[in-house]
UniProtKB/TrEMBL annotation:
PANTHER family: 2-HYDROXYACID DEHYDROGENASE-RELATED, GLYOXYLATE_HYDROXYPYRUVATE REDUCTASE B. It catalyses: glycolate + NAD(+) = glyoxylate + NADH + H(+). The active site is at R241, E270, H288. CDD domains: GDH. GO terms for molecular function: glyoxylate reductase (NADH) activity; glyoxylate reductase (NADPH) activity; hydroxypyruvate reductase [NAD(P)H] activity; NAD binding. Keywords: Cytoplasm, NAD, Oxidoreductase, Pyruvate. The gene is gyaR. This is Glyoxylate reductase. It comes from Thermococcus chitonophagus.
Length: 334
């Protein structure tokens, strides 16, 4: 009898096909998000679970899933999973790093450029016919934005994504500052990057890109006090997690001119709506699409499948998050 895997959202077909060779696969195919009630019901007889960031996988889920041995998160982050509780129960947890690094770094730079150069505002100006109504081709004071080439970028979080953002910044001739829990001397040499304490980085940067995981230490790390340290011409870009930024403080900063603008791909809650934030013209918004390229999403699906197949074969999954679980239970279902 093949182990059963339940997938809480339809993932790219390449991952499904790989899993179907080794598992009995059930997929939640409805476009709407799976409800908590349905999730708790569906996990009762599964051996493996593929889940998304928006689903809370905690003690209640584990208690409803007596056969569950592995949770494969279709994301690089895993703050939606109670990893400590999973480890206690001998449940393996995996994620999908690396394969979405470049796609997310690309989006970070897209948000940076779009915010700096008023691309969304300009697009609206053309589409609505306002340009035609103005009756002139251009004006020297229209849509004045901020130069990017040769400016200073501060990257908060210098893991895979943060370093990928730095490589792009290097191509723009930017001075690169970074802040992380530990210094990375080899990467500093490669990218000509300078380590700075967070407060100094915020003071000196023309652009600040957030690329940290959500932890107790990073929750609301960008608050009113730290936003006030930034230049009034600075732009904040968040491709990390929404709760890294205090949204109320950010709205105040954008309205009162503490900073020039913001580009956001993540929010404190998702899906999200904030009329006050969304009414501001100096913010560019995307719906958590950092990994939304064909290549990245298919790479994530393949990595999810590789993790589950390795576990089934009694091997340690390639991107195991909680390695200490190996001491509690060997990989494998039976």
């Amino acid at each position: 009898m093949r182990p059963k895997v339940f997938i809480t959202r339809e993932i790219p077909e390449n991952g499904i096909k790989l899993l179907e060779k080794e598992f009995e696969v059930e997929v939640w195919e409805e476009e709407r998000e799976i409800s908590r009630k349905v999730l708790l019901e569906r996990v009762k007889d599964v051996d493996a679970l593929v889940t998304m960031l928006s689903e809370k996988i905690d003690r209640e889920v584990f208690e409803n899933a007596p056969r569950l041995r592995i949770v494969a998160n279709y994301a690089v982050g895993y703050d939606n999973i109670d990893v400590e509780e999973a480890t206690k129960r001998g449940i393996y947890v995996t994620n999908t790093p690396d394969v979405l690094t470049d796609a997310t770094a690309d989006l970070a730079f897209a948000l940076l450029l779009a915010t700096a150069r008023h691309l969304v505002k300009g697009d609206k100006f053309v589409r609505t016919g306002e340009w035609k109504r103005k009756g002139i081709a251009w004006h020297p004071k229209w849509f004045l934005g901020y130069d990017v080439y040769g400016k200073t970028i501060g990257i908060v979080g210098f893991g895979r994504i943060g370093q990928a953002v730095a490589r792009r910044a290097k191509g723009f001739g930017m001075r690169i500052l970074y802040y992380s829990r530990t210094r990375k001397p080899e990467v500093e040499k490669e990218l000509n990057a300078e380590f700075k304490p967070l407060e100094e980085l915020l003071r000196e940067s023309d652009f600040v890109v957030l690329a940290v995981p959500l932890t107790k230490e990073t929750m609301y790390m960008i608050n009113e006090e730290r936003l006030k340290l930034m230049k009034p011409t600075a732009i904040l870009v968040n491709v990390a997690r929404g709760k890294v930024v205090d949204t109320r403080a950010l709205i105040k900063a954008l309205k009162e001119g503490w900073i020039a603008g913001a580009g956001l791909d993540v929010y404190e809650e998702e899906p999200y709506y904030n009329e006050e934030l969304f009414s501001l013209e100096n913010v560019v918004l995307t719906p958590h699409i950092g990994s939304a390229t064909f290549g990245a999403r298919e790479g994530m699906a393949e990595l999810v499948a590789r993790n589950l197949i390795a576990f089934k074969r009694g091997e340690v999954p390639p991107t195991l998050v909680n390695r200490e679980v190996i001491k509690i239970r060997k990989p494998g279902f039976f």
